[in-house]
Specification:
Elements: E1 8-12, E2 22-26, E3 38-41, E4 45-49, E5 57-63, E6 72-77, E7 81-85, E8 92-103, E9 106-109, E10 116-119
Antiparallel strand pairs: 1-2, 3-4, 4-7, 5-6, 5-8, 8-9, 8-10
Length: 121
């Protein structure tokens, strides 16, 4: 007896339909784009907040460059708020966030949020 789950599908391993041998292939549901990203500057840190979703977690990307090509730091969190510490005064930082779901240690990422620009004063 098998139970149906929206994240699994049954695939036959042989061409003979009379055999009951089958494997289960997991497909991870793709997360949606993160919305309502808000970033506030503090003394040497920034507070990042975004709309909560029903996902396994979020990936936060912070960079000194708008295109995130170099010097990009990635952080993972399960909360809808995050405080990034240890930033330098006078620098401008760019922040983006994306959600992900995980099944059997495979992550399926959604689209990146809009990029927010913040300057530490």
């Amino acid at each position: 007896q098998t139970t149906e789950c929206p994240t699994t599908q049954t695939v036959s391993t042989t061409e003979d339909p009379s055999t009951e041998a089958a494997t289960v292939v997991n497909t991870v549901p793709k997360a949606k784009k993160v919305k309502q990203l808000k970033v506030k500057a503090r003394k040497t840190s920034i507070a990042i907040k975004y709309k909560k979703q029903k996902v396994d977690g979020y990936q936060i990307s912070i960079s000194l460059e708008k295109n995130f090509s170099k010097r990009c730091e990635l952080r993972f969190t399960r909360k809808s708020t995050f405080i990034y510490k240890g930033l330098k005064k006078g620098k401008t930082y760019y922040v983006r966030v994306r959600a992900y779901n995980t099944i059997n240690s495979t992550r399926s990422f959604g689209s990146w949020s809009n990029i927010e620009k913040i300057r530490i004063k």
